[in-house]
Give the backbone structure.
Amino acid sequence: MKMYCAIIVLLLLSACASRPPAHVDEISIQRKNRQAQSLKHRKLPRKPNFYRVQKGDSLYSIGFRYNIDYRQLAAINNIKPPYTIHPNQRLSLTQPSKTTSTTVAESNKVKTSAIVIQPTMRASNDTKPITSKKPATTSNKPESKPKPPATVTVTKQPSPKPQPKPVVNLPKTGDLNWLWPTQGKIRTTFSGSNPARKGISIRGQEGQDVKAAEAGVVVYSGDGLLGYGELIIIKHNDSFLSAYGHNKKRHVKEGQQVKRGEVIAQLGSSGTNVDNLHFEIRKNGQPVNPLDYVKP
């Protein structure tokens, strides 16, 4: 009996010895590599230093794209109100350093002082006036006098008077009374750490009304911002903007003044595959949680 038990023990030990050890180190390394790849894909693209203005852009849409307050963007590029920009214009997205600014200023100063207008010099040292000799005429006919040029009367047209721009009365910061922009339940919420969730998504039916959350002026109406589809941006005052994306159809144009609750678009799925409204609120150029300002 003892011999039989010893044989069983030896068989068990040999079976354990033949089993290959677990590659714990390799599994751990593979897990770390997967985590590193995941973090690598989550990294945000680096913001460029410059931007070339495209057709349809506005200072507000460019600032919206790169999370820069439009006033800061205007100050960096020395653009005065009403913040007019032109296609192919090169805009700086970062504040230049003092050293760079001083170097550029000094360089411009040197170049300007080096420009000297020289008087016209004669080709030779002869100071006598150059006279041209007319060939002798053999004809006795009197010279005909040239006819005086015909007089043309030019009637100066009065320049058209500039049309006065409409006075836009924007609400003050403390007077904003936000309205829920469309019917529907919240599909996704705001997340400050996720660049894809700078606002909230409200699920709805295609074609339903999208309303201005507050009174203001439309500063962008177009489809030039990737990922937003048909987008409308409204300026409410010097601090606050609101944005309405993925519309089926836009009903307002840039420069148009809108009232609180006015229909500005129809809900749709442009730029996505779901019928929903992407709604954002920006304060001084930065996304904030809309649910802190407006309640469903």
About this structure: Residues 45 and 192 are 16 Å apart (CA to CA). The domain at 50-92 is CATH 3.10.350.10 (Membrane-bound Lytic Murein Transglycosylase D; Chain A).
